[in-house]
Each structure stands twice: as structure tokens, then as C-alpha cells.
Predict the 3D structure of the following.
Amino acid sequence: MTDPASLADRVQEGELRIHELEAEADFDTAAEARRLLVERETDADLETIGDYAFPAERAEPNIENMIGAAQVPLGVVGPVAVSGGAADGEHYLPLATTEGALLASVNRGLSVIRSADGADARVTKNGMTRAPVFRVDGVAEAAETVEWVEDNLEALREAAESTTSHGELLGVEPYVVGDSVYLRFAYDTKDAMGMNMATIATEAACEVVEGETPASLVALSGNLCSDKKPAAINAVEGRGRSVTADVVIPGDLVEDRLHTTAEAIVEANTRKNLVGSAKAGSLGFNAHAANVVGAAFLATGQDEAQVVEGANAITTMDTRNAEDGATDLYASVSMASLEVGTVGGGTKLPTQSEALDVLGLRGGGDPAGSNADALAEIIAVGALAGELSLLAALASNHLASAHEDLGR
């Protein structure tokens, strides 16, 4: 076996480049050589970073220039009681985070939801998007291009779907800005998050557009997709999966377990999540949905940058009159653009695969797409639990004391 120290020497001497080490040795040796190199040049001690529990080769499709692994504490909340279109029953939800008190708060909300006989959740829309931008001479050619696209959707579908055995083209929405034409392609990518699938399929469709219209492709992504950026189009039209979860909490349960009232939580939600968010110009009208989305993404191997879109959520709270005259609490969270998958990408990494096993959602579902739908529904209920718990803490003025009690 090639000595890691000698490999590090060769990189320092300019004989090798840092990304060429896997051609000289196995993946773990290459990672160790890089660690030695970085330690020499920075005086850092990378012992813990180098203490990972899976073969470095398993990470080869997911990272370049590997030196080890970042270990984020991983816990579980639940069981998450959900009646969904794809998820049903109780599931433990793995969450990876460095934020103390987060899992305790979500667990409190989930306990209340379970006592209220669980939450309902449904994926209401599904479509991963890619929006290339084309150049035309002016509005006349733009109109000609748009008309051709609208009249020839089947030709575009044939080209796009020729690149994948799973993806389906759902539709193409055109947008014209001066001499630019944007075509927002939307795909059903089944159990894959599907960004790469959508990109490859769209590239094939663009070749057809260029061959049949005056339009010339400028960029395969024109930012109308819109990926990994705050964007109103995702909040309105959705991207990935649009999913809603809701629950009715009996008034006595609100008082006994959340130590406040339905009316107080409704007021806190209105003034904070709705009015406050509107005044701030926020695209997300929620308390902290991204906390659960981000922690679930890290745990289950989702693209962590897409937490941006996952924060496109609206939390609603309302009072409901119960038959016994009590005032119950209706709570919901609607996530417009939750981009998740159970196959491909980071879901294949060892710890992330195990986390999906905890959920019973590793790999493709039967029917195709059902596992990713179920994951979206469970995350939505987890986010709803987090919203309930935080709003209750705010309504009862217990937020600071809760963090203080937990030493966070």
C-alpha cells in the first residue's frame, strides 16, 4: 500500500495535485494523505475528522478531496403519528443538529399531536423544475418560440424522457422578458429528489427547441427554477413536493400540556408569523420550519442547500368550537417547496441510509414516488410539532426559561 506520508510529500513537492491522490492509492489512503497535508500546512489536528466509520470509497460520488467526515450529533424525535397519503402510523424521525433544545421542543409538540390522535398530511403537488434561458431577437421571435413550445409539448416530452427510465415531464411554463425566453420544465422524479435527472432531461429538450425555433440556449439554468435561492415562484408555484400537515388539538390538551390557550397561540401566530413576516418581506410565514427541515436533511442525506426552499412554509393557527363548548386549536403548516428523495445523492451514504431505515423509507417505494412522498409528509408533521411547541412557548412567555432550563 502506498504510504500516506509519501503521497503528501509528492503533493507538497508539486509532483501530484491534491485531487489526483485516488489515482495513486485507495480512497482511505488518499483521504489520510490529504489530512496529513492539511495538518502540515495549517497546524490543525484532524484526528477526529479522520475518525469516520465507513469506507471513503462510499463517499466518492458525493465529495471531492475528502479528508474525513463532519460528525453532527444525531437524535430522534417521535414517534411521529401521521395519517398521510403515503405515510401512515408512527415513525421515529432522525434529526441531526447542533442546536440544543430543538429536539426537546419538537418532541413536546409531537407528544401533544399524538395525544390528539395524530396529524393528517398530504402531498398536494409534485414537480422538480429546471428553467433554461434562451436568447431571441425580440418579442416577435419570443412569441414564435412560446407558441411552438405550447404546440409541441409531446416532442419535448419524448426528448426529455429519453434520458431517464423514471422521470416524467409534467409540463413546460414559458416566461418572456424582453429578448429572453425562459422555459420552466417540471418533472415527476419519483423517489429521487431529481435535480440531476431534471437537468439532463431538460438539456435534451433544449436541443429540440433550438432546432425548431429561433431561440438560442444561453444557460441550462436561468434561475427561474429556482434552485437554492429564496424565490417567490417556489413559494407560489411549488418545487419538489408541496405538502401540508394539520391537526386539531383539544382546548384542555393545549392548557394542560402547552400551558397556554388556543386563543393565545392564535394571536401569537397572527402577530408573529403572519403580520411580522409580512412586514419583514419574508417568503416564509412560519416560526422555525427550517430547523426541522435542515436537521432532517442532514440526517437523511438530502441536499442541505435546499433548506432555502424548505423554509417556504406558512403556519396557520385558528380556534375551533368544540361540541362541549370548549375552544380547540386548529394548527397547520404548508410547505410549498420541500425537495426530498429516498434514492440517489446523499441518501446512499452509510449513516444517511441507516437514518432512512429508521423511517422505513430507504430506497424506492412501491408505487414509485411513495417513499419520497412519505418522507415529505413525516417531515411536515415534524415541522408542525416544532411550530406548535415554539408558538406555545412564546404565548406563555416560556421560551427563554426553556432554553435556560436545558442549559442551552
Summary: The beta strands are 74-84, 88-96, 119-130, 133-135, 168-177, 180-188, 216-219, 240-249, 313-321, 327-338. The chain is about 40% helix and 20% strand. Residues 370-395 form the longest helix (26 residues).
